Amino acid sequence: MNQLAHVLRKVGKQIGFRAALIAILTVMLALLAAVLAPLILYDLSIKIGADAVDDILTILASSMLAVTTFSMTAMVTLAAGHRLAHCLLRKPPPPRKARASAWTGRYRSTSCWRTF
């Protein structure tokens, strides 16, 4: 029993399991909506209308686009900043003539200095 609980806890923490669980619950909810659709009163569906649903979906799509744009901008900025900081924290390489004669080994790579 203790091993089973440990395995379930370990599997439950994996992101693939969570995504699969959410997908299964979404399909079950769609099937439940199809079963419960005949129980909704006709007058209620006329009052709400397709225009209200269209407005709500437009708001949701706009919000999701804004969040995605912000997240992508943050990731790109972080990646570029990390690369730039990595290069700036090292001392610049010596001039080309001095590099061959006075090589001390402390300048490991000059490739990042060529990109900035």
TrEMBL record:
The chain crosses the membrane at residues 21-44, 56-81. It comes from the Bacteria. The keyword Transmembrane applies. The keyword Membrane applies. Keywords: Membrane, Transmembrane, Transmembrane helix. This is ABC transmembrane type-1 domain-containing protein. It comes from Sphingomonas astaxanthinifaciens DSM 22298. The lineage of its organism: Bacteria, Pseudomonadati, Pseudomonadota, Alphaproteobacteria, Sphingomonadales.
